[in-house]
Design brief:
Distance between the termini: 42 Å
Shape: globular
Number of helices: 9
Radius of gyration: 21 Å
Order of helices and strands: HEEHEHHEEHEEEHEHHEEH
Strand order of the largest sheet: 3-5-4
Oligomer: single chain
Amino acid sequence: MREDSGARINISEGNCPERIVTITGPTDAIFKAFAMIAYKFEEDIINSMSNSPATSKPPVTLRLVVPASQCGSLIGKGGSKIKEMRESTGAQVQVAGDMLPNSTERAVTISGAPEAIIQCVKQICVVMLESPPKGATIPYRPKPASTPVIFSGGQAYTIQGQYAIPHPDLSKLHQLAMQQTPFTPLGQTTPAFPAAGLDASNQASTHELTIPNDLIGCIIGRQGTKINEIRQMSGAQIKIANAMEGSSERQITITGTPANISLAQYLINARFRDVAAMWNDPSSMTTS
């Protein structure tokens, strides 16, 4: 990619769920590098669909990290610039409202066909050249991943170096999830569950849930943050169907091992309980 594009491409190090890819160079070189990345992502999506029950191909999605001081130029007065980008390229473009943790940068998410993404990135490069960042930029640095967790024989283990250490609290979580027994919602300190961690030897299956339209937002969360957390913690694939005209409900399809599915169901129910608690205690809504 470096040789073919002429751009400098660096990938951040570290055991993190996210890695930062920095592409530097003239606009045309960045354009070529992003083209190669977008087509690579599409290739990965096509390959992954060969083992997936999904029938429609999801769009390629890139999340750019942009200094917050330049985001106003990308959006334009009254949203005029971002609207122009969407209409001229066919890509979906979303600029996050909040800055990324411990930084002065914001996420700009682009999704669509590779050709649309490439054209959109080129337009973004032009805007960023015309409107340089103002003041110092504190770059976003992803936090290291949580300690890996595996399950075997009903027992949870955390991986520390070369050793698997029994973790009784997570074993209890796994047993309760398998039984689908209600218990106290997960706290913020609960480690994430890797996708391969929950009885990966079990054969995958599919389970469907029906959720009222007016509650689906609390499952998805702002910009998909809650549903992505549930996917990461459960290791399950979770797809939310589009709203059907005249229907007051949405279909959620959960795919994975029995443990994946059970934990995903629990986390969805826990999310409902959290929201219900907020409604009963309005003062807590500002911290949810």
